[in-house]
Structure formats: structure tokens, C-alpha cells
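Hi again,

Forgot to attach this to my earlier email, sorry! This is the prediction with uridine-5'-diphosphate bound. I've pasted everything inline since the attachment limit keeps bouncing my files.
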Amino acid sequence: MGGGVELTLQTVTQELARRGHKICVVGPVGSHIDGVPVVEVPGALQTTAQTQARDLPVVMPHRSVLAAMWDYARQVQDQYDVLFNIAYDWLPFYLTPFLQTPVAHFVSMGSLLDVVDDAVVQTLERYPGTVGMYTATQAETFGLGDRCRCLGSGVDLTRYTVGDRPEDWLVWLGRLSPEKGLEDAVAAAHISGVPLKIFGRLEDAAYWEQIQRDYPEAPVEYGGFLTTTEQLQSVVRRSRALVMTPRWVEAFGNVAIEALACGVPVIAYRRGGPSEIVRDGQTGWLVEPDSVAGLVEAIARLDQLDRRACRQQAEAEYSLTALGDRFEAWFQDLVTRYGR
Ligand code: UDP
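C-alpha cells for the complex follow:
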């Protein structure tokens, strides 16, 4: 559906398959992933957690795809060492004690719903080591401090070319949805006069229309959803910087490491995942959260950053090898502790 989870899943499975592991991805009908077999399961999707109030109960839709996928996993679990859950859903946590094969839960979002949070914490208490997160600040939103395994994310660096001759515009990448705070990036473009190109899935059309009404003069342009990494990197690498303005505690922010892979610095609020990724003053600027003035100031200081340092950081921390090592060690640990 064009979010960061899809990219993380692609990257992890691609690298583990390359290392010789047998992998099968189970996903809703229409799912595709390069180089790994996919079992496509029919059924209705869950409502996304970020659109719901914190105290709502879990709702299972009629003919739930989530339930069907875990029923499939139950049936084939004997053939695998580990079941890998990459999501923020209640059901797989609840089902864990009923399964014989260990489940590695990689939580894809920060705390949003009480009922899911409880399931995450209870699973961790019952099965230490089985809960992974993108970042420490994400784990902190569950009050879990350093009790989770922080695995970050990664990208196939061969798919991203460094752009050393940037053009005079900024880029914003992400779902057009209130938690992503696009209006602040638009406001900063308006004040600084530096154009902003926006790409991503139009998740909330009314939200985007409101931003256009609020900033009719801003030098911004929405270019739609870039469907492939090739398209995305060919745009990003020509920009002066990626601007990230999330309102929520972003669990990670895959777009940040995609920009770094292109040698593009990142201006981001000092909040959530991006605050752990960006090296302030080297590979980007971290800005006081929700401060448009701070964004404008950071844009004015972009020339102080070295684009080579951005690519170097991506190579050191977010390569396929670095990511594969982290996930392989985690899965190995679970097999040792809980394997049959
Ligand atoms: N993305 C994309 N096309 C676009 C804009 C974004 O494919 O036009 C992808 C991008 O590659 C990244 C994801 O959308 O993998 C956004 O992930 P991120 O972790 O930044 O945020 P999330 O959507 O998971 O909250």
C-alpha cells in the first residue's frame, strides 16, 4: 500500500533469501515482492490504526484477511523456524501462545491503540526477546525503554544513485495524511521561497485540499505517487534536501534513509525515528518539533552539509548487509530460545 513497512519487508526478505534462507511471504491478494514467493490471501483489510481513537476495541471485519493469513501460518508453521509478524495488529500477539513455532514480532508503528499496546507488552513479558522495533524512541512510546530489539531498516544501495548536482528545490515524500504534517513543510517553502515537490499516496484528499486552500501562493507541486524505487530515487537525488515534518512519533521514516542513499541531506523534526537517523549538522538538520521557523532556518543552512557524508552514513548503517546481519541475529536468537 505504499508505506514504509512494504519497503522494510522487501529489503529484509530480499537479503535473507540472498543468504540462502527459505522464505515465503503471506499477504493480501495483489501483494507482490521481488525475488520471494508470495501466498496471496483474499479477505478484507483491517482499518488503519492511525485513523482510530486510542480506546477503541479491536474490530475484525467480515472475512478478515488478517485472520485468514494467520490461519495459513498455523497450517504451515512446521515447515519454518520462525514466523515473522511485521505489523501493528492485535491478533498475531494474541495468537502467539497458540502457535508452536516462535513468532518474531516487528512492530511497525509507535503506540496508538491501548488494546494493541497491551498485547505487545504482555507478549514481551511472556516471551522476552520476541518484540522488535525500528527505533528506541518508538519503543519508548510503549514504555518499553531498552527491552525491545531495535533493528532499524535498510535499503538496497545499488538501487540509489548519488546526485551530486542538486537543483534548487526541496522534496517531501510520504502518505498525504495528517500525522505526516505536510502543512509545515508547505509553510516553510512559502516563507523561504524555495520550491517544494511533494510525492506520495493521497491517503486523505480533504487534508491536501485544505493545505492548498491555506497556502494558495506556496511554491509547491504535488507529483503523485512514485511507484518504483527507480522513479523515486531519480527524483530525490536531484533535490537539495528531504523535508520530514511528522506530527506523530514516526517509528522510523524509511524515506530518510532513501534520501541519504542518494546523498541527499534530511531536514527533520527532532522527534521519533528521524531524530535517531539524522546526524545533526552532518547529514541533515534536526529542528525543534512543530517549528516552521526552525525549518526555514535549516533550509538556509543547507550549504553547510556535505552530500558525501549522507551516502556514507547510508552505507555504514543501512546497507543490505547491515540490515541482514541485524535481522538474522534476531531470528537466530529466537530459534535458540524458543525453537522446537
Ligand atoms: N514512497 C513511494 N512513493 C512515493 C512516496 C513514498 O513509494 O511517491 C514510499 C517510500 O519509498 C517509503 C514509504 O513510501 O518506503 C514511506 O515510508 P515511511 O517509513 O517514510 O513512512 P510510513 O508510510 O511507513 O509512515
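The pocket of uridine-5'-diphosphate is lined by residues 2-5, 7, 173-175, 199-200, 225-226, 232, 252-255, 258 (CB under 6 Å). The radius of gyration is 20 Å.

That should be everything now.

G.
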